[in-house]
């Protein structure tokens, strides 16, 4: 399924209620958003959601894998040069160990080709993140919703699904060639003029 991640989309009232439930004072957060719907807010992670923050392009590849070949995603936001994937609580603690166990760290090698997952920042219990405004101010903003929350109980991927998406995105980023790499020290002779 193809999705248009660059179109401005807003958060529904149910989605806003879900986001606000992550904070200590949900009614205050909702009141702020009611007064200023274009204000970003800092929310704690760990109880309602965790965040997996990927470099923007790699996060987009993960999102494409989730929607193209997988179960879809939960809410996703673009924040500066990062893609914030909302995940099930506990994902921030488990995903780094799964990546390490699967040897898909920054120096991981699979199938003789370099295929690495760039550093993913995992935010869980004790962390807080800035979430975009409920209603986008403009198209193409550096801080916006790519997949906006739209229910009070959105489906959130867990660590295994995000591992799957990260590995598939890393594989998609690797160029595969049937020709071996050229030997840089080899002497090259022009045989086109031989008699």
What does this structure look like?
The protein is globular, with a radius of gyration of 21 Å. Helix 1 packs across helix 2. The strands form three sheets. A five-stranded antiparallel beta sheet has the order 7-2-4-3-9, covered by helices on one side. Strands 1-8 form a two-stranded antiparallel ribbon. Strands 5-6 form a two-stranded antiparallel sheet. Mean pLDDT is 84; it is low at 106-114. It is of the alpha+beta class and 195 residues long. It is built from five helices and nine strands; from the N terminus they run H-H-E-E-H-E-E-H-E-E-E-E-E-H. It has one domain (13-173). The chain starts with 12 loop residues before the first helix and ends in a 22-residue tail after the last helix. The longest helix is centred in the last third of the chain and has 15 residues, at 159-173. It has helices at residues 13-20, 26-35, 56-68, 91-101, 159-173, and strands spanning 41-44, 50-55, 76-79, 82-87, 109-110, 113-114, 121-123, 128-131, 143-147.
Brief descriptors of the model:
5-stranded antiparallel β-sheet, 195 residues, 5 helices, globular, 29% helix, two-stranded antiparallel sheet, single chain, alpha+beta
Distance between the termini: 58 Å
Number of domains: 1
Assign the structural class, choosing from mainly alpha, mainly beta, alpha/beta, alpha+beta, or little secondary structure: alpha+beta
Could you estimate the helical fraction of the residues in percent?
A: 25-40%
Q: Are there runs of 5+ residues with pLDDT below 50, and where?
A: 106-114
Shape: globular
**H and E order:** HHEEHEEHEEEEEH
The beta-strand count equals 9
């Amino acid at each position: 399924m193809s999705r248009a991640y660059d179109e401005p989309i807003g958060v529904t009232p149910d989605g806003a209620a879900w986001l606000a439930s992550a904070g200590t004072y949900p009614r205050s957060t909702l009141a702020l958003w009611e007064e200023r719907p274009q204000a970003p807010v800092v929310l704690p992670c760990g109880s309602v959601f965790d965040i997996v923050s990927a470099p923007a392009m790699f996060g987009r590849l993960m999102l494409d894998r989730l929607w193209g070949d997988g179960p879809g995603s939960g809410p996703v936001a673009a924040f500066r040069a990062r893609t914030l994937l909302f995940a099930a609580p506990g994902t921030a603690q488990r995903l780094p160990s799964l990546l390490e166990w699967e040897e898909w760290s920054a120096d991981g090698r699979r199938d003789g080709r370099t295929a690495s997952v760039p550093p993913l920042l995992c935010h869980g219990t004790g962390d807080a993140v800035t979430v975009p405004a409920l209603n986008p101010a403009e198209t193409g903003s550096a801080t916006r919703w790519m997949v906006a929350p739209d229910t009070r109980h959105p489906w959130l991927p867990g660590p295994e699904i995000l591992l799957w998406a990260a590995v598939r995105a890393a594989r998609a980023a690797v160029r595969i060639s049937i020709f071996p790499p050229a030997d840089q020290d080899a002497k090259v002779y022009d045989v086109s003029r031989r008699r």
